[in-house]
Each structure stands twice: as structure tokens, then as C-alpha cells.
Amino acid sequence: MQISFTPMRLDRALSVSRQGDSLTINGETFDFAPLQEGDVLPRAAVACDWLAADVTREGGVIRLTLILPHGPDAPEATRFPQPLSLTGDGPVPLPAYQTTATEDPVP
């Protein structure tokens, strides 16, 4: 699975974990297993505010883009995030919300 990000200044937290072809985003699970090679699942067909673009399966890899919330003092790695290639299950390591702990996102 490959996750790209669209950074956005938001006061909401993001939590993501992977289990096979499913992602759990802030407690809600989205199963992308039915996506066949070359399929495109339109963004509008998925009831997820964090999804920023269509979901595809290319070369056997599910590819999607999530909105990445960040604080007013976000580090460069968060404002210009690199895509993540996930090979295992479990929590997805997201870039830091901000560089200081003065303002935490609202869950």
C-alpha cells in the first residue's frame, strides 16, 4: 500500500492503521480489498473526509492520498511529506503534527 499526503492546516487529529487491504482512519475502517488491478475507486464513492483523491490499485499496490493535518508550527517534513510505502500491518507512522507541544490537535 502506498499513501501520499496533502498537508493542510487543521486542528483535528489523524490516526491511521493498516490491516491488509484495509485502513482504519480515526476509528473507521475502509476495506479496499475489492479493488482489482487497474480499478479506480472515485473519491466521492468513499465516505471519508480524510481521503483527498481517488483510490487505485496499480501493480498490485493500493495507492491513495490522505489529508495530513498539521499545526501552525509544523516541521518541513510535515509540510512537504514524502509518500509512505507500507509493507506491514499496524499503526501508520505519520509526520509530526508540529514541532512544539503548545497546541495539540483535537481528536
Compute the number of strand runs. 9
Distance between the termini: 25 Å
Poorly predicted ranges: none
Q: Give a short account of the largest sheet.
A: 5 strands, mixed
String of helices and strands = EEEEEEEHEE
Count of all domains: 1
Residues in helix, %: under 10%
Content-based structural category? mainly beta
Rg from Cα: 14 Å
Output the strand order for the largest sheet.
5-6-7-1-8
Quaternary structure classification: single chain
Q: How would you state the average pLDDT, rounded?
A: 93
Beta content: 35-45%
Please tally the helical runs, counting DSSP H or I stretches of 4 or more residues: 1
Coarse morphology:
globular
Gist of the model:
This protein has one helix at 76-79, and strands at residues 2-9, 16-19, 22-25, 28-31, 40-41, 55-58, 61-70, 84-85, 90-91.
